DNA sequence: CTGGCCATCGCAATCGTTTGCGGTTAAATC
DNA sequence: GATTTAACCGCAAACGATTGCGATGGCCAG
């Protein structure tokens, strides 16, 4: 691919000229390539006279010169590139985060390689290795588990990274997440205010920090509101998806049907609940209230529209990217952690509990 | 970011060694860097003796050598990189396509830069320019419009590209799309078989090939089945989204409420219909049947679950990537076009028409 | 008038690979 | 045993940019 205009050779046939190089620009401006380089780079421009700088810049413009980022990277050992490690782009949670990331990256002249791990640790290792061999300057990781030796190893090796949505224990790296704890607190308060007293929780996997934070916050909130604090009302889903959400819901219903509301670990798990409701003819919200987490796109189109806690995905991505850029610029700054505020969005999947059957 | 192990300097403090270079490998194997290069590259390996090849490979392995793709790119003028131009990653249509693309790309050692244009031609120009300055070897384009001078210009300049989901008139470049025409035919047949005689079509924008192909196919199918062929039953949406779908639906209902079914240009437009049904208290499918197009993720979770025609998004992406790689390998092959088969998936948004009020 | 300083710019090395070319060696031919 | 031939490998020049260092020249101060 030749990013420049075709030109005519003397013989007349169309020939694609090579893109102009820095040398060409220098020659056109009557200076040495080194001078041209300095003139074009704002931070070194003070090393050349204003007059020659003007000439060089003009020449660059008329030639349509575009610096070759590959040559530049080779020399400077900077690739202006970061890696973005997510489980699966197909999960609607991630596209908004990705866009947030790319919005700030590209404003700084960076860009991102995206890799999907499908939650497979081995795939993750391979993908990250390939990212590193492509000389990325840092990593944004959305696949962190509570115990994650591989990430620890990377950190030991000085790989710059920031975590999104997840934390890992004993790992001193910056991370940006939603304020899960207050999100869950809001959800429980909403249900309590509606009059629910016996509330279940379909927790996310405890291998992820989000899973443990949310389920801990759930227990706290239950106690704070003086609701029924029954450990058997909490069941852990194996993964953050519909199938495992549905499985957990079935398990719960099979052993106890006296709860009137459920706080799902996230929207997908809530979707699993919907499936079970359809299976068993349970009407939501009349017989069972559900609140999700994340406010995924299109989750408001469900029947009933899902009450959930909205997470600023775009901001999460943007802040993560900014943080990574900060780390790259000043390598030994203390890692900060960012907790982004969430909001409760009440829709139609929650309502007052129906009075228990007066049996 | 240093992709290798930290090591100890004589002084004892931790120092991150430089990643091993080809020179290091060569030295370790007791050969020249050129020889090492040939030994490591399968296609030039026959130029060195089996024995030295073995030594070099072994040395590379023990040193953990990873070729520097930047240096290689500089020398070979190949970046092993393609650009992927989509309107908006947040549209659930695209993530599966992207994954399909990346699956085949990465098997060939390529990777993709993704850019979002938000359907803004100017943004598109800027993004594509930036892609080209990053030396991509080709482009996969999902934002094509029927008239698209910019793409024509790129093609003139010899930029390799393949179109997904869209075609552009008078542009001889390969493209891979779903078989829109038979998809629409299937939808219409489905409705006809249910007994619908007066069917509306909310067409996608005619600035996109998909919009014109689908609406033309709709008219043909209507005639083929001998249904009511009323041009006023076709209205064009300004964009492929819910808002414009809803607007078109309102317009349609305001001037004619005697149709009993609607073929939406795609699932998002169908979603817009759902919104209008809710506004106006129209019950779907009892009073109005709807069929969408694409079978977006989660569209089966709607109430009612949407009848739609399923498109093999992952395959579309995969085939497009393969095609682009083919173009890159043998530049002057004739552009082929691929039409991928679609399937009808019947859910609950379509049923027999209710007998007209016996007024 | 001379010495020193500063601004400006060119020289050349460098980043890590790839590759055309030429040189060395050993095997094959007569 | 001399010569052709092939196999193997090293030399060095790229690719296109950046950058330390040194050269040049002008200017000012002593």
TrEMBL record, chains A, B:
GO terms for molecular function: DNA-binding transcription factor activity; transcription cis-regulatory region binding. This is LacI family transcriptional regulator. Keywords: DNA-binding, Transcription, Transcription regulation. It holds the Pfam family LacI. It comes from the Bacteria. It comes from Planotetraspora phitsanulokensis. Residues 20-76 form the HTH lacI-type domain. InterPro entries: HTH_LacI, Lambda_DNA-bd_dom_sf, Peripla_BP/Lac1_sug-bd_dom, Peripla_BP_I.
């Amino acid at each position: 691919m030749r990013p420049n205009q075709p030109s005519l050779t003397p013989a007349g046939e169309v020939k694609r000229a090579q893109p102009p190089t820095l040398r060409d620009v220098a020659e056109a401006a009557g200076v040495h390539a080194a001078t041209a380089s300095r003139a074009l780079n704002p931070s070194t421009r003070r090393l050349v006279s204003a007059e020659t700088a003007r000439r060089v810049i003009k020449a660059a413009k008329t030639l349509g010169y575009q610096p070759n980022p590959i040559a530049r990277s080779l020399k400077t050992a900077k690739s202006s590139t970061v890696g973005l490690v997510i489980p699966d782009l197909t999960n609607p949670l991630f596209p908004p985060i990705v866009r947030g990331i790319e919005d700030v990256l590209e404003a700084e002249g960076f860009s991102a390689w995206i890799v999907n791990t499908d939650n497979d640790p081995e795939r993750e290792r391979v993908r990250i290795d390939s990212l590193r061999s492509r000389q990325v300057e840092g990593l944004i990781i959305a696949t962190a588990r509570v115990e994650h030796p591989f990430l620890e190893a990377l950190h030991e090796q000085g790989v710059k990274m920031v975590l999104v949505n997840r934390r890992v224990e004993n790992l001193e790296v910056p991370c940006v997440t939603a304020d899960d704890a207050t999100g869950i607190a809001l959800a429980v308060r909403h249900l309590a205010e509606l009059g629910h007293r016996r509330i279940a929780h379909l927790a996310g996997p405890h291998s992820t920090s989000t899973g443990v934070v949310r389920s801990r916050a759930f227990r706290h909130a239950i106690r704070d509101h003086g609701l029924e604090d029954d450990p058997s009302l909490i069941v852990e889903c194996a993964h953050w998806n519909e199938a495992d959400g549905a499985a957990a819901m079935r398990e719960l219903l099979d052993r106890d049907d006296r709860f009137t509301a459920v706080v799902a670990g996230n929207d997908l798990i809530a979707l699993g609940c919907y499936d079970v409701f359809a299976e068993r003819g349970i009407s939501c919200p009349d017989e069972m209230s559900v609140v999700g987490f994340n406010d995924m796109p299109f989750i408001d189109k469900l029947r009933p529209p899902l009450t959930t806690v909205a997470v600023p995905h775009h901001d999460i991505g943007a802040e993560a990217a900014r943080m990574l850029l900060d780390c790259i610029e000043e390598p030994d700054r203390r890692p900060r952690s960012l907790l982004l505020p969430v909001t409760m969005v009440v829709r139609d999947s929650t309502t007052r509990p129906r009075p228990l059957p007066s049996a």
